[in-house]
Structure formats: C-alpha cells, structure tokens
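for ur thesis appendix - Flagella synthesis protein FlgN. copy paste whatever u need, i formatted it the way the template wanted (i think)
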Amino acid sequence: MKDALLASLIDELATVEAFASALALEEHALTVVQPLELLPPVVEQKTVLIGKLAELEAARDTLLAEMGFPAGSRGIELAADGDVQIAAQWSLLRQAAQRAWNANTTNGMLIRTRMDYNQRALAALQVVVPEKPAFYGPDGRIPAYGV
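the 3d part is after this line
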C-alpha cells in the first residue's frame, strides 16, 4: 500500500513539474508583444494538467483512506511520519507546488498589468473631443464668439 502511495506522489510531482513548465511558457507568452498566438496551447495544456492533478489527488486520498489516514495534507503528513521515502517525496511535491504557485502568482500580475495597459489604451482612444464651433457657419460666415 505504501508503494502505491509513493508511486502516486511521484506521479503528482511529475505533473506539478509539467504544470510549472506550462506556467513558464505562459509567462513567456505574456511578455511578448503578440501573446495571442502563444497562449491558447498553453491554456489547453494547463487545463489538462489541472484535471490530471485533481485525479491524482483523489487517488492519493483513496490510498490514504485505505491505509487508515484522513484525506488531504493531514493524511499525507501522518503517512509521511512513518516512512522516510514518503516524507521525502511529499517534501519534493510541496516544494514543486510552491514554485508553481509562485509562477502562477507572477503570471496573474502580468495579466493584470496587461489588462490595465489595455484599459488605458482603450480609454485614450475613447477620449471625447469637445465640440468646436465650425470655422465657417452653415451660412458661410464666420460666427461671432463671446457676443
């Protein structure tokens, strides 16, 4: 049973590392002038990896339950207390998840910056020009101002 849990943690680590790589690609895409060509495949890859991570977490929780531990991080912490290999793999997984979280936070800031820039650009393009009187009126005469 512990071997299955260890294998599950190894799979999770590989998937989190793949997710972190996708985040690095996303960061690159967000820093180029024309990101729209690069972003769709990255978003698709991230979506697939998120689904896989959810499946792996559910499988881990099932294994933990079969071993008599609660689900989630509490259960894996208890399992890790009794096994050096599980503890080491859990530590690696937590470190990788932290790196991915940091990368995701950076990408969120890049997205907000880009959105802010786009909103400012739109606002600049939508400036309402005050209506100026025509140089010549409809009758062909120059209108008198201030009279």
